[in-house]
Amino acid sequence: MKLIGKALWTSLLLVGIAVVQNGGSESEVLRLHVAEAAAKSAPASDYANHPAKDAISHGLQKGYLWKYPDGKFHPEQTVTQSQFVASLVAIRQVSEKESVPALPADHWAKDIYERAQKAGILANVPVNPNKLLTKEEAALLVFNAWKPFRGEKMKGYTNTGALVTWGWMEPAPKGQAKFREDLPVTRGDAAKILRYLWQDKWQLELGRQYHDEFKRSIQVNQDTITGVVPKANDDFLLSVTFVTKDNGRIVYKNGESFSVKLSETKKFLVFGISNKKDSSNAGTFRYSNLPDMEVINLTQQFSK
Predict the structure, then answer these.
(1) For residues 170 and 20, which has the higher predicted lDDT (pLDDT)?
(2) Engineered SS bond to 24: which of 19, 91, 196, 302, CB 3.0-4.6 Å?
(3) Is there a contact between 249 and 218 (Cβ–Cβ < 8 Å)?
(4) Alpha-carbon gap, residue 162 to 182, rounded angstroms
(5) Rounded-to-integer distance, Cα 191 and Cα 200, Å
(6) What one-character-per-residue DSSP string does 4-55 give?
(7) 139 near 167, Cβ under 8 Å?
(8) What share of residues in the chain are helix, strand, coil (percent, to 5)?
(9) Alpha-carbon distance 219 to 212, whole Å?
């Protein structure tokens, strides 16, 4: 995934947050941005031994996390709403904007919030750029941002409970209620959550590419359907499954070609992509009425 044209305004935003929180003026932002950019190559310093080190390094490398002007990440500080929103917008690669009346025209966070508004990230979220986020507030932003990819959260759960159940937010420390919503989200915590989102978006996009390649390979000649299962990288398992008339299964996997008589099947197939590292679903596509090539996208949703 390549971030184009957004690193500048997102890093400026983080520096702007630091300036405002420390009582500085907005005129200092450009000067501090230069210092922040120079500090990007600094050693890991304050997060070198942090449990979120890998997630922080990933976010800095991919361009959806940023250090402070002092060259440090400050992983134990509570993440602010604007910092978390900026990261979500960067991962989603939002470019279009929609008005956010709650912020004046000259507000330092106006640009990022207008992008977030257009993407639906701010649904039911009171705009407060300097607010320190709790788990429930961060989880709401996550589900808003990920609705286009994974649908609604699981019914009957709080946002925190659903995200913990999905595995993208850590439960409360031992001895406390597992789904405790009021705990603060540190910048280190946020880095872990955001890495899950980046990876999920990447694998869903990759899954669609594999499916497009698979679909282009399919040919139907009278009663016979032929095609090729794309050869995936080592992290993914691709499979095509046919169900025979006696409810048996015919399965072809990564890189295999197939030739199947439709009259011997129930005339449907399922093409699936799964991540072998964590068994997450990167795409499921069903052709329900072969030789008709209409496709139903059954990719796993949050609610399932």
Answers:
(1) 170
(2) 19
(3) no
(4) 15
(5) 14
(6) -S-HHHHHHHHHHHHHHHTT--GGGHHHHHHHHHHHTTS--GGGTTSTTHHH
(7) no
(8) 40, 20, 40
(9) 14
Residue type, 231: K
What is the rounded distance in angstroms from the CA atom of residue 273 to the CA atom of residue 254? 10
The Cα–Cα gap between 228 and 214 comes to: 6
* 45 pLDDT tier (thresholds 50, 70, 90): confident
Residue among 272, 207, 212 nearest 238 (CA): 272
**Predicted local confidence at residue 14, as pLDDT:** 52
Which tens digits make up the pLDDT trace of 284-295? 999 999 999 999
Segments of the chain assigned E as strands: 219-221, 224-228, 236-244, 249-253, 257-261, 265-275, 281-287, 295-297
d(Cα 127, Cα 125) in Å, to the nearest integer?
6
The tokens for 167 are 């595995």
Q: How far apart are the first and last CA of the chain?
A: 27
235: which 2 tokens?
A: 């992290």
Residue 217: which H helix or E strand, with range?
A: helix 187-217
The one-character DSSP state at 303 is: T
CB-CB contact of 16 with 29 (8 Å): yes
Q: Alpha carbon of 78 to those of 75, 81, 84, 163: distances in Å?
A: 8, 10, 10, 19
In three-state secondary structure terms, 215 is helix
The CB density around residue 240, as the number of other CB atoms within 10 Å, is: 23
**Residue 81: C-alpha distances to residues 44, 53, 178 (Å):** 24, 21, 23
